[in-house]
Write a structure and sequence with these properties.
Layout (H helix, E strand, L loop, with lengths): L1 E8 L3 H11 L9 E2 L3 E5 L6 H4 L7 E6 L9 H5 L5 E4 L2 E4 L6 H14 L5 E5 L12 E6 L4 E6 L2 E6 L10 H10 L5 E4 L6 H8 L5 E6 L2 H13 L5 E5 L2 H7 L4 E6 L9 H7 E14 L5 H13 L4 E13 L2 E10 L1
Parallel strand pairs: 6-7, 11-12, 11-14, 12-13, 14-15
Antiparallel strand pairs: 1-3, 1-4, 2-3, 5-6, 7-8, 9-10, 15-17, 16-17
Helix pairs in contact: 5-6, 8-9
Protein name: tRNA (Guanine37-N1)-methyltransferase
Pfam families: TRM5-TYW2_MTfase, Trm5_N, TYW2_N_2
GO cellular component, one term: cytoplasm
């Protein structure tokens, strides 16, 4: 398709392209043209005379026959709306458990058509339930499985979503916790799951030891596989109740990770027991918007006082929206 453009010698092409971007007149609807000696940069309008002063003398305004960009279709193009889903490995997980069968099938077909990396589409049949934090799923389309390998920050996590909880939405949070770890620290991950916090930290080679605890035997089995899969060192996978394991490692932890947001407050006595003087508890909770932090800080303070210790709140932050008027929060408290 014919477009007005700037013809410029290739050696001057990049500076001219930057000028066009600054002027916001580079036409991105078509591909930049080229031959052996020149580039042809498409324009949304002709530069004004004063704008031309910023260009090198070698340019020429001409018409050129450009090829259009082939726009890759997205689910919205096929559906007419934006579906809510998250991608874990090569599995797409629909977020609305109330979707009827027909609508879920339409969304699944659109996801498979527009995302070559998606092989399976699941719909949750239950919320996260039980002491092992698992959900039941229906395979809506694609390969009939719930197991996948998810890649994140150079790590690989094998997980069966029907047997162990995992979400990619905490990837930034996991990286942030890693940034707080110093060389030689001892980390206790009280509810490790398949290892997304523990393995990322262990692979950094900062800590002297990562103790990864979980009560779910399936989660621990995948955790052990993932330790091998990622060649992680200085990490121990422990199947057991965090309360009981805390008594074995009392006073050893520089960092205690409590990623069990619905019920972490029930384990605060154990977290305080684990923390060495100056150790930091990373406490996660689900709280209402009218009481984001204060009640949780009170829980942490009371647990510390029972052990004859005090706390210093280092940071409190909203991690993400969880539900209407409810938020996933993190409080970091030093135990002294």
């Amino acid at each position: 398709m014919k477009r007005q453009c700037i013809k410029v010698p290739k050696k001057k092409g990049e500076p001219v392209r930057r000028i066009l971007l600054e002027l916001e007149i580079l036409d991105n609807s078509v591909k930049i043209g080229a031959d052996e000696a020149f580039l042809y940069l498409p324009l949304t309008r002709e530069p004004a005379s004063d704008e031309l002063e910023s260009f090198p003398e070698e340019i020429e305004l001409i018409e050129f026959d450009f090829k259009p960009h082939k726009k890759k279709p997205v689910p919205e193009d096929l559906l007419g709306f934006s579906p809510a889903y998250e991608v874990i490995g090569d599995i797409a997980l629909l977020e609305d458990p109330e979707l009827d069968k027909e609508k879920a099938s339409r969304i699944a077909d659109a996801l498979l058509l527009t995302h070559s990396n998606i092989k399976t589409v699941l719909k949750p049949l239950t919320p996260v339930i039980g002491e092992f934090r698992v959900r039941e799923f229906e395979v809506v389309a694609g390969e009939p499985r719930t197991e996948t390998i998810h890649r994140e920050y150079g790590c690989r996590y094998k997980v069966d979503l029907a047997r162990a909880y995992f979400t990619p939405r905490l990837s930034t949070e996991r990286s942030r916790i890693l940034s707080r770890v110093k060389k030689g620290d001892i980390i206790v991950d009280m509810f490790a799951g398949v290892g997304p916090y523990s393995i990322l930290i262990a692979k950094s080679k900062k800590p002297s030891k990562v103790l990864s605890i979980d009560k779910n035997p399936d989660a621990v089995r995948y955790l052990r596989e993932n330790i091998i899969l990622n060649s992680a060192k200085n990490i121990e996978a422990i199947e057991g109740d965090a309360r009981e394991e805390a008594t074995k490692f009392a006073g050893t932890a520089d960092h205690v990770i409590m990623n069990l947001p619905h019920s972490a407050f029930e384990f605060l006595d154990s977290a305080v027991l684990l923390a060495k003087p100056g150790g930091i508890i990373h406490y996660y909770g689900i709280t209402p918007e009218d009481d984001l932090f204060e009640s949780s800080i009170k829980f942490i303070k009371e647990a510390a006082e029972k052990a004859g210790r005090k706390i210093e709140v280092l940071e409190k932050r909203v991690v993400r929206s969880y539900a209407p008027h409810q938020y996933n929060i993190c409080i970091e408290a030093r135990i002294v």
